[in-house]
Fold this protein.
Amino acid sequence: MADLGVPNLADRLAAATPETIAKPIRGLSDRALAWLFIAPSIVLLLAINIFPLIWTIYLSFTNYRANRPNAPIKGVGIDNYVSILTDADVWQPMQATAHFVLWTILIETVLGFGLAFLIDRKFRGHGLWTTIILIPMMLSPAVVGNFWKFIYQPQTGLFNYLIGMLTGQSASSFEMIGSVRLAPWSIIIVDVWMWTPYVVLICLAGLRSIPDYIYEAAEVDRASKWRQFWTITLPMALPFIMLAVLFRGIENFKMFDMVNLLTSGGPGSTTEVASITLKREAFESWRTGYSSAFAIILFVTVFGLANIYVKALNQVKSR
Amino acid sequence: MADVELTHLTKRFGTTTAVDDLSLAIADGEFIVLLGPTGAGKTTLLRLVAGLERAEAGAIAIGGRDMTREPPVVRDVAFVFQQYSLYPHLSVYDNLAFPLRSPVRGMSEAAIRQRVEETAHLVRIHDKLANRATRLSGGQMQRVAIGRALVRRPAIYLMDEPLSSLDAKLRSDLRLELKRIQAELGATILYVTHDQTEAMTLASRIGVMDHGRLVQIGSPREIYRDPVNSYVATRLGTPSINLLPADLLPADQLAVGTRTVGARSEHILISRVSGGLARGRVVRKEHLGGHVNLHVLIGGAEVVKRVDADTDFLVDDPVDVALHVPLCFDHHGDRLDAGGADANT
């Protein structure tokens, strides 16, 4: 039709519509307006994220100490980095962090997906159960840290009492926070208690995104419930599960408040995760330059790992 | 393939009755098309046969076995859903192979590959086997959905408006294709549509549904020429049948007690009259390419007749209209002269 020289309706409409629909406001172009609108966020982002980052990078190459503001600042090159990366003691917090991150992710994902899978069914009062399950997540980490300290009390705490009751041994025969063997698990348990609901929530979104008719089609195609789970439920919810893992991983890599309140890194340095070390170096030893370098190393590690992970995630999503 | 028997099937959703005491026997190799408007209970009936819904009353037997309470897995039916229902995370190949990989079957991968490729050729999707199911056009997705059913040799194929979301060209192509495939495989198909062309061209028997009831079932020709009531009569035929008061127009044969006459295009005779004697007038000409729909206003009613494209009737022409053996309906809309129309034309 178009080659007969008679443009169709869509073509004519397109020709009649001006490029910018809105009139320029007081001489501002669309582009200028767009910048105007996002400027506040950009300024804020620069002030509280980007500037401190750059400042930290600068400090990491100096011997600056925040408790001696008047001392001359001397550039030390990469000395801080060299001393951190060659220090055998640095591996301890790194290992503690890895132990904490890996176990919490594993337990929270399995538990979270399992719970989400159960709640996803329609049963009596499933709304109530969902709300109850989500409560821990809504509490402040400071509150959680403090009351779990009470729960872990060997003599009067609920945790020891329950374990004692279940296993038959004396409740005060073991200490969660005080023992070298159990302390890492004490923080893992609390994190699982607090953040599994979050994984439940994301997994639930994933499960709800699978339309019913897919299951009906599978049912008619004679797939058993077991096969439906492995070929439909899991692969289709996988991007969501991976997203939950990513969020929990990044969060727990930086975990500070709850651990600081619960064990402060102890006993000894068994639960001293990287962020606790960082705080000690920065605000107890006041080695600002050194701790800046440590922070940058942590940042690069998390950033690198997260990037590799996001690539994998995108691959799963586009599969 | 097997025959399927539905007896006194009833399904309610709350207070609405979706399928109402419906009985239907489908013979092996038959192509049954259920025709009816949205909400007539066609889809619910298919879902009942598939086992995706439980009937409140009645029985379903597939291949002689009572399947009323059995889950879909046991029934061995294939379903083409209206919304494609492909497995979005799988490739076209894996979508087609999915039903064959059921452990119930225990087919080897080589046998599966052969069957999938055959089917892909059948529905003309073989060049897209490696694509992800969601990276296809609507027509391609629907062909995959049909293929996923055809890849199996179930007791019965259930198809829920499989062509309704396709464009006209593809729809008529696939319609022919489906008929050919059915003849080739000798498949038993229960097919749901609201499109009368699909019903007329595909069906060995058409079942007309209304409010969960099967109003009439018969060959397309029977349904068209000998409808049991005015509802069925309006389901088939383009232009749609004209329902007129019995005394409006002269007709050569009317049954006693006729309240409404159903005049299909071929029952209408239009004649040109001169001057003030004409009772009717041409009010509109619809050009439809190969033919013209002539709208005539007569006695307050509008009558539509299909005529040749080169008709010399013009808008505003004075005309008169007579009827030749129209269908006669009583005051309930039920047929009075059933079987008569066949004998006279």
